[in-house]
Amino acid sequence: MTTSHPLPPPDPGPAGAPPPEAVAPLMRGIAVLRHLTDAGGGAGLSELERSTGLARSTVDRIVATLARMGHVRLDGRTAHLTPRVMELGNAYLAALRLPALLREHADALADALDESVSLAVADGDGIRFLHQATRRRALSLSFRIGDLLPAERTAPGPLLATEWTAADWRRWQARRAADPTDRTFPAVPPRPHPTPDHAFGTAVERARSDGWALDDQLIEPGLVALSAPVRTADGRIACVVSVVSHTSRHSADSLRTALLPPLRTTVTAMEAALTAGPPPPAPDTPSGLAGWTGASKQELGREFVESLARGLTVITAFGEGRPSLTLSAVAEATGLARATARRALITLEHLGHVTAHGRDFRLTPRVLALGFPPLSRTTLPRIARPHLTALTGRVQDSSALAVLAGDDVQYTAWIPTGRIMDVDIAVGSRLPAHATSVGRVLLAALPPEERAARLARSAADPLTARTVTGPADLAAALDRVHADGYALVDEELEEGLRSIAVPVRDRDGTPVAAVNVTLHSSRRTPEQCVTDVLPALRATAADIETDLHIATRFARVPPL
Ligand code: PHB
Fold first, then answer.
1. Do domains 98-276 and 380-551 have the same CATH topology?
2. Which candidate, 12, 28, 145, 189, has a CA 20 to 30 Å from the CA of 515?
3. Is residue 373 in contact with ligand 1, taking CB distance under 6 Å?
């Protein structure tokens, strides 16, 4: 739910001047990432200059550094966050382990109730989402992973506030006084009129005695939510699970009567998973994570801000089985000198992305504010497009992304060359799978029975004199595709049209889409397609897969 009210100035982070050891370029880089996140994933360089108050040359160097790290892509004078930036939030979510242990339970509850279900944790005086099991409805009701909401306008808020300290309550009051309409929460519509502080205090006391809490249209008219806490063995709240609905389906009261029992059953299962879930896999001990930064500095010189790159790399030292690290462990994982790692940790702690408990450091939910919300809603075509654009630029022929849709392939992205005579493929259009290179790649990957059933259906109609037809010939063609790892289809769909495709695989290795290059037969021989185009096509598929695997570690990425 993004709203169109003007963006507030970026959250200044915890009050107080930065400590003398703080690394200024790391603070500036994080300010740029925060602004890009709040702006929905992209912003012009001049806008970044205005919103961060940084000089033009500083913004240029920060963006160049983030681009070198793969966190940002520059498109003319506009910077866009890339899926790679999700590695930061992934480090937090992997270290926390709650999504790994609980998301199946949340998804099962959403399926059983046909309502959206979310997991949230406390973040200062707000709540931040860790997981969203959303329903696809015309009227979409859900926040994104990483969105921050004011605690007092949510159902999880009163439950989490039962654990607030006096200092937390003071911070909450100060924030309410400074921002009475919630302008510092870009994910929610502004509060129409200030509400009295005591109303939230009452809600917290009720949540404490009831063990559940309701949001009766506190965020916006129509939105209702019911929440319950998931506790660890020692009784502390690990996170809050919510069922979210709309007043067209449930009033707040009917939500509680009908859905509290199944919600409680899920909480019991989640609490069992927390205490009895499998231990984290043996942590791989990363080393030399920051080793590449020196080389980039040599190559890019002044344009590369090494202290920013090193500081962000510190975040990725955390992960599954590595939830809390000492300074020495961070220095070892990153390959940074202790003094450098220490200054980065002090900076991240000052900005609220890290907390220190004695000698141990942990990431906080605020790490999700570094790019996660807009990217957690990305799609495969959006991930693929910049890579296809680079491919078309390189080979000077049009490229496309497609998925299987029944017996057809459906094109979900297409990048033309811009030449007068060009292949023309409309996004959304469908072609018979068996006669296209993308279709052959995807058919070749199907389990044998499904493949045979499809061939029996689709093998009949030749489209040109060259179209391979007949189940036996097509099966032989698919076997070759399977063995080669690519499909070349030569004038089988249309006279004069030649196309070569490779699969795009998900984290489990299953092809979920295919990318191709299509050209007129006068441009290259079939052999030249293999020698001149295939290597670039494979590299493009690998780049798309890298992004897809990062993006789908904790978020769902629809194929179209
Ligand atoms: C949500 O998951 O979108 C959600 C949860 C609790 C609320 C509001 C929204 O109070």
1. yes
2. 145
3. no
- 400 vs 92: CA distance, rounded Å: 34
* Ligand 1 near 245 CB (within 6 A): no
Q: Which SS3 state, helix, strand or coil, does residue 143 take?
A: coil
At a CB cut-off of 8 Å and minimum separation 6, what does 430 contact?
Answer: 405, 408, 409, 410, 411
User: Out of 200-214, 311-325, 457-471, which region has the weakest mean confidence (pLDDT)?
Assistant: 457-471
In tens, the pLDDT along 286-309 reads: 888 888 898 999 998 989 999 999
Would you say the CB of residue 154 lies under 6 angstroms from ligand 1?
yes
Q: Cα–Cα distance between 151 and 161 in angstroms, integer? A: 8
CATH 3.30.56.10 fits 24-87+287-375, yes or no: no
Across the beta sheet with 511-520, the strand order is 430-432, 408-415, 398-405, 511-520, 497-505, 487-490
By C-alpha distance, which of 280, 386, 383, 290 is closest to 333? Answer: 290
Distance CA 243, CA 224 (A): 9
- The CB of 219 under 6 Å from ligand 1? The reply is yes
**How far is 150 from 219, CA to CA, in rounded Å?**
9
Provide CB contacts within 8 A for 249, sequence distance 6+.
115
Residue 318 clears pLDDT 60, i.e. is over it: yes
Give the residue from 365, 305, 310 showing the smallest Cα distance to 343. 310
pTM above 0.90, yes or no: yes
418: helix, strand or coil: coil
Two structure tokens written together for 185 = 């929460």
Topology (CATH level 3) of domain 98-276: Beta-Lactamase (3.30.450)
pLDDT-above-70 percentage for the chain: 96
Quickly tell me which residue has 């070198």 as its tokens: 68
Amino acid present at 270 = M
pLDDT digits (tens, 9 = 90+) for 100-115: 999 999 999 999 999 9
**Distance of alpha carbon 436 from alpha carbon 464, whole angstroms:** 12
- What's the topology of domain 380-551? Beta-Lactamase (3.30.450)
Question: What confidence tens digit (pLDDT) does each residue in 245-261 have?
Answer: 999 999 999 999 999 99
Instruction: Work out the pLDDT band at 3, boundaries 50, 70, 90.
Output: very low
Parse the chain into domains and list their residue ranges. 24-87+287-375, 98-276, 380-551
User: Which residue among 118, 200, 246 is best mutated to probe the pocket of ligand 1, counting the most ligand atoms within 8 A of its Cβ?
Assistant: 118
Q: How far is the CA of 37 from the centre of ligand 1 (A)?
A: 20
Angle at Cα 314 formed by Cα 506 and Cα 230, nearest 5°? 65
Distance 244 CA to ligand 1 centre (A): 6
Our mutation pick for probing the ligand 1 site, out of 242, 250, 263, counting the most ligand atoms within 8 A of Cβ, is 242
Residue with tokens 């093998």: 459
